[in-house]
Design brief:
Helix content is 34%, strand content 18%. It is α+β, with helices and mostly antiparallel strands and 180 residues long. The strands form 2 sheets. A 5-stranded antiparallel β-sheet has the order 5-2-4-3-7. A hairpin with a 5-residue loop joins strand 3 and strand 4 (98-104). The longest helix is centred in the last third of the chain and has 18 residues, at 155-172.
Length: 180
C-alpha cells in the first residue's frame, strides 16, 4: 500500500502589527470621515467615532472601576479589566476618570445598570489610537486593547463589573457620595 502525502494549507502567523491594522480599519468604519479620523489618531492620539452601529460604549466612572478592581494602580486595574471582561476592549480617558467598555451595537436600548451609562446611537466618542495601550497620565489609552476586529465586551460581564464596584463603593461610603 502506497502512502500519498496530502497537501494542507500552510499555517500563517498573524503578527501583532497586522492585527492592529485590522482593528484600526474596523474601528474606522464608525467614523464619519475615516481619513480625518486616521489623521486625528496620528496627530492627537484620539479620533471621534460614532456609537450605535458597530458598537455601543458603556461609560464607567473611574471610581466604580477602581472599586471593582479593589486597587487604584492603573496597571492592576488594566489587568483586572482584561480578566473580568474576558479580554473585551476597554479604554480610559486621561486622568482615569472614565472608562469605556465597547459592547455590541444596540445594547443602549436595554441598558439598566446603575451608575454607568450606555451611550446612545449616533453619539460621537473620542477613541484612542489602537497603539496607545499603556498608561500615561496625560493620554487616553486602551486599558484592555481590542485584539481582533469586532471583538467586544459581553454586556452582562460589564453590568456585573458595574454592580460589583457600585456595591463596594456603597459599602465603603454609606452616605452615597463618591459613586460618580
Amino acid at each position: 500500500m502506497k502512502c500519498t502525502q496530502t497537501s494542507q494549507p500552510e499555517a500563517r502567523v498573524i503578527t501583532g502589527a497586522e492585527r492592529a491594522r485590522a482593528v484600526e480599519a474596523w474601528l474606522l468604519l464608525a467614523a464619519a470621515d475615516a481619513a480625518k479620523a486616521r489623521r486625528e489618531w496620528e496627530t492627537q492620539g484620539a479620533a471621534v467615532l460614532r456609537c450605535g452601529q458597530l458598537f455601543d460604549a458603556v461609560r464607567l466612572p473611574g471610581a466604580i472601576v477602581r472599586s471593582a478592581a479593589e486597587t487604584d494602580d492603573p496597571a492592576d486595574v488594566d489587568r483586572f479589566l482584561a480578566q473580568a471582561l474576558g479580554g473585551g476592549p476597554v479604554f480610559t480617558t486621561a486622568g482615569l476618570e472614565r472608562y469605556y467598555a465597547l459592547v455590541e451595537g444596540g445594547v443602549a436600548y436595554d441598558w439598566r445598570a446603575p451608575a454607568a451609562e450606555c451611550l446612545p446611537r449616533g453619539i460621537g466618542l473620542g477613541v484612542p489610537a489602537v497603539g496607545l495601550t499603556e498608561y500615561q497620565p496625560s493620554l487616553s489609552y486602551w486599558a484592555s486593547p481590542m485584539d481582533a476586529p469586532g471583538q467586544l465586551c459581553d454586556e452582562n460581564k460589564v453590568a456585573e463589573l458595574v454592580m460589583s464596584g457600585w456595591r463596594r463603593l456603597a459599602e465603603a461610603n454609606p452616605s452615597g457620595r463618591g459613586a460618580k
